[in-house]
Design a protein that fits this description.
heterodimer, A: alpha/beta, TIM Barrel, 37% helix, B: alpha/beta, 6-stranded mixed beta sheet, 20% strand
């Protein structure tokens, strides 16, 4: 994949937002660090849907650069207390991306910053081990959440459709490790990776929420969007893929919340309304995305209520999508 | 192989059949996507391997004795990976640590009933012995003419003839006839329903957004009840879409009835030539399919009930047309004459019964035994007088304008050129004008021969002047040839003169069975008696042929201008050709496909065939092609006319 040149001491992005915790809504600072990149991409096994490799530096970065990126991002902090969410193009606890030295300096700074109430780091399960988590815990003693992109509880879908390369049992093991060190766990699920019909995708995520609920404190449902340079993009360009309907996201959130009332279930409809992102008919996309945003903060299913004629069509797409035997229903 | 699908009628690759499940499905059929989705119909879908519900469903069903097991009269579609058109090889992770979900109870060995399997268009290994093949992602073949034709034909070539093909999610009233013509047996109403919910109104002519429709062109219950499109538009979404889907599904069902009736009438070709005009891609499908000559030729019957209407440029590529032209070159032997008279075709068939030909025949009186007459026509090319009653020479109709298209001229010139190259004559007289004469001029130039034109300057071949000219030209040609020939061989033409009917019968036999068979079947001693035979209604007076003056009947003419053999006649057909070898049994009125051991691969549906086994000898009409007889496990292979028990 083509790499763009970027200053090594600036993060990919950092922005303020709000996040839903058990106890309420809190301002958050999301930081995306530029690193060497996910090792899966380096071995030619990137996920079919992931375009983050484009954001990676492509070369190992020095601890100084990484800490500088972090500090640069922290200048965009919201006022008062907040939570910090750190993402890399891969795993925060993979030392090839964030060397041990950089990791402990970043976590140390977060630990000593009195406004930081909670930190979320993201990692693949193979880097959530006794050693990595205990290391983190030595420098960071506040609330720590480890987010894992398990995507689905179905091994077949995770391996065949996403090429994620790990099993649900790997995720369960990682979650146990995290909990042992007093860290909470957040699962990222992916609604509608390639090759799934709308109905199968919905059922997969509703079931996945049920399956992961025993192992996590929070679930975030990512709505699959077509990122540049991915296998998914190739499929999309040939008409082989249609991103999920926002109705599907609303349906999943409603059903999952009903089944798991105490679980925090959120979704950030990235790219909603665009052709490459989750979308409905075009007329109601803004409303639908707004409803999902509102629900993600309030956890109140009434916030998911919107109306549009295209709901009828979506319903038929869900009903009949399995009967095309592979052809996406692109409307 | 299938125990559950039987084909009863064929029109080229299209066929009428039945899927014998707990409820019979008469194919071609539109299956209900609602029934399929809910697994309430006779076809049960195991579902996609990534669908957890499908897998869970399968597991519970295995232990649930109250619910009917799929084996009981159901066709089970095996678990499949639902892959889009371009992604057949995409999801193959190299570091797979788990095998795909196993569904033991749905495995081949555990299901007693009919089986279906999804085959992706890019898939090369097609498992054998399924009763139904589902074309994966078929909806994506819409608007991709070449891929559609290639996919269906590849699947057909790789599977047994008596297995059903299901193209899911693609059928609309507009494309249905083409899909069936390609050889598809099952479609569904998925596309029709989805179009309805998108506010699209479907008819045979295509689609239109309901928002732009001013008047319902249809009188179905939905359209009648709704009044006007305006009133339908005012209904709330739920009702509006449901009604549109209902209309669309009705139209699809209606079109399927039309298509089935076309197959029964043997005129689906005429229908698709008309229907494919609604969209360029459908016309492309027909043209690309016509390029797959072997596929169509093998399945096209020798004769059809209806009139062959050649109204389009594609008509020229029809198997009936190319087959006739090919056989005139490869199987027909002209009589021993030096002079060829080329005559124009007539609207009335057979040509001899037309007014114009009556005039030509009158003008040629006295010379006819010494010349050979052929008729030039579009799109058949060259029709020897001997074959003017043989299908499709007396069974076609064409729009006559006198204006010839370049395609027509080139094709007919090619036919005449090939004919004259194969059968040179000393003198060629063309009693033709206009486009016909243009054809001859091309041939003159291409072959470097000289053709005598006998039509007067008025350009009317039937004028007294032209007829006089024809007679004079023929007389001159014959004078030349009798001057050159010595009197020693004068007995030959006299014999021919006495029995022109037998020459025709021999030509027909050659046309049906191969060059030289006519001479073996109908010897010098044979007798022909004219008379309206049971089988000859169309081409006027029929005939019967007897071995000799007191001998047994060997053949009689049919309404298609072909020969129907008796057992005596069948015994005279040389070995192997048009033979169907059967097992050790004595068939009664028909031979079923499982009883066929071998069949001449050149046999086509409606061909006259000879049935031979250790215990029986018979003659009848093929219902399937030779390869289909051998490859099928069900269905009537031969309709027998007569059979004799053999004693050993």
């Amino acid at each position: 994949m083509e790499k763009r040149q970027h200053p090594p001491n600036k993060p990919v992005a950092a922005w303020k937002s709000f996040d839903r915790l058990k106890e309420g809504v809190i301002p958050s600072l999301t930081i995306i660090l530029r690193t060497y990149g996910c090792y899966r991409s380096r071995i030619g096994q990137e996920c079919t849907i992931c375009g983050f490799a484009r954001d990676s530096a492509g070369v190992p970065l020095s601890p100084e650069d990484l800490v500088a990126q972090f500090e640069n991002a922290m200048t965009r902090r919201p006022d008062g207390e907040f939570m910090v969410k750190i993402f890399t193009s891969g795993s925060f606890t993979d030392t090839r991306e964030i060397p041990l030295d950089a990791r402990s300096r970043i976590l140390g700074e977060l630990d000593s910053d009195s406004d930081v109430k909670k930190v979320l780091i993201e990692s693949r399960p193979e880097f959530v081990t006794q050693k990595t988590v205990s290391d983190c815990r030595q420098t960071f003693c506040k609330k720590l959440e480890i987010a894992i992109g398990v995507e689905t509880s179905s091994d077949a879908i995770r391996l065949d459709c996403i090429n994620k390369g790990f099993l649900f049992s790997d995720f369960i093991r990682a979650s146990r490790v995290a909990h042992r060190f007093d860290s909470s766990v957040k699962a990222y699920l992916l609604l509608k990776p390639p090759f799934l019909s709308e109905g199968v995708a919905i059922r997969d995520i509703v079931k996945s929420v049920r399956d992961v609920s025993k192992y996590v404190e929070a679930v975030s449902i990512n709505l699959c969007n077509v990122q540049k340079g991915t296998v998914l993009e190739k499929l999309y360009r040939r008409g082989d893929y249609r991103p999920p309907w926002l109705w599907s996201a609303i349906d999943v959130l409603r059903r999952a919340k009903a089944e798991n009332p105490d679980l925090i279930i959120t979704s950030d409809p990235v790219g909603a309304g665009g052709k490459r992102g989750p979308h409905n008919c075009g007329r109601c996309d803004r409303d639908a995305a707004g409803a999902i945003d509102r629900f993600s903060l309030s956890q109140d299913v009434d916030d998911l209520y919107i109306e549009c004629d295209c709901q009828e069509l979506w319903q038929k797409v869900v009903e009949l999508g399995d009967l095309t035997y592979g052809a996406p229903i692109v409307v | 192989m299938t125990r559950y699908f039987e084909i009863t009628e064929r029109d080229c690759a299209a066929r009428i059949g039945r899927l014998m499940l707990d409820q019979r499905i008469a194919t071609p059929a539109v299956i209900s996507s609602v029934l399929l989705r809910q697994n309430r119909g006779s076809i049960i879908d195991s579902g996609c391997v990534w669908d957890d519900r499908a897998i869970a469903h399968a597991h519970t069903r295995d232990h649930d004795r109250d619910r009917p097991h799929p084996a009981h009269g159901k066709l089970l579609i095996l678990p499949h990976r639902s892959l889009p058109l371009h992604a057949y090889t995409a999801p193959e992770p190299t570091d797979r640590r788990v095998s795909p979900p196993q569904l033991p109870q749905f495995h081949n060995n555990h299901h007693e009933g009919a089986l279906g399997e999804v085959i992706h268009p890019a898939q090369t290994d097609v498992p054998d012995r399924r009763d139904l093949y589902v074309i994966g992602a078929a909806a994506m073949l819409e608007d991709r003419a070449r891929l559609l034709v290639d996919t269906v034909l590849k699947l057909k070539r790789n599977t047994q003839p008596d297995t059903a093909i299901y193209a899911p999610g693609i059928a609309t009233p507009e494309n249905l006839s083409l899909l069936v013509y390609l050889g598809i047996d099952l479609v569904d109403d998925t596309a029709a329903i989805l179009k309805g919910y998108q506010g699209v109104y479907l008819t045979r002519e295509g689609e239109k957004s309901i928002d732009r429709l001013r008047e319902f062109p249809c009188a179905c219950a939905v359209c009648t009840k709704s009044g006007t499109p305006e009133e339908l538009r005012r209904l709330e979404g739920h009702t509006r879409f449901r009604l549109l889907a209902e209309h669309n599904t009705t139209k699809l069902g209606e079109e399927m009835r039309v298509v089935r009736e076309c197959i029964r009438d043997g005129r689906l070709r005429e229908y698709v030539e008309k229907q494919c005009r609604s969209r360029p891609y459908l016309t492309a499908v027909l043209r690309l399919l016509d390029c797959e000559h072997t596929y169509l030729e093998e399945r096209t019957p020798m004769v059809r009930k209806g009139t062959l209407i050649a109204n389009t440029a594609e008509s020229q590529n029809r198997v009936e047309v190319t087959r006739f032209a090919e056989r005139v070159i490869s199987r027909f032997t002209p009589p021993d004459a030096d002079t060829l008279v080329i005559l124009p075709c007539s609207a009335r068939k057979p040509y001899s019964l037309s007014k114009s030909h009556a005039g030509f025949i009158d003008a040629l009186r006295g010379y006819r035994s010494q010349i050979h007459e052929v008729v030039l026509t579009s799109p058949l090319g060259v029709v020897p007088r001997e074959l003017e009653r043989t299908y499709p020479a007396a069974h076609y109709d064409i729009a006559v304008t006198g204006e010839w298209s370049m395609d027509e001229t080139a094709w007919v010139a090619a036919c005449l050129g090939r004919y004259l190259r194969r059968h040179p004559y000393r003198t060629v007289i063309a009693h033709l004008s206009g486009g016909f004469a243009d054809v001859c001029k091309i041939v003159e130039r291409d072959l470097g021969i000289e053709i005598v034109y006998s039509v007067s300057a008025t350009g009317d071949p039937t004028s007294a002047e032209s007829l006089d000219c024809l007679r004079e030209s023929v007389a001159a040609a014959i004078d030349v040839s009798s001057e050159r020939s010595t009197s020693s061989e004068s007995s030959e033409p006299r014999r021919r003169k006495r029995k022109p009917g037998l020459a025709m019968a021999r030509a027909i036999a050659d046309y049906q069975f191969g060059r030289g068979v006519g001479a073996e079947l109908i010897t010098e001693s044979a007798q022909m008696r004219s008379g309206r035979s049971r089988r000859s209604s169309r081409s006027g007076v029929g005939f019967r042929i007897f071995a000799d003056r007191n001998g047994k009947e060997i053949a009689s003419s049919t309404r298609y201008g072909t020969l129907a053999l008796t057992l005596e006649g069948a015994a005279r057909i040389p070995p192997r050709i048009y033979r169907v070898s059967i097992d050790d049994f004595i068939p009664k009125s028909s031979v079923l496909a499982p009883g066929v051991i071998a069949a001449d691969p050149q046999i086509r549906p409606m061909d006259e065939v000879i049935v031979e086994g250790n215990l029986a000898f018979g003659v009848g009409q093929a219902i399937m092609s030779g390869p289909e007889m051998v490859g099928s496990e069900r269905g009537v292979a031969v309709d027998l006319r007569a059979v004799r028990k053999l004693s050993h």
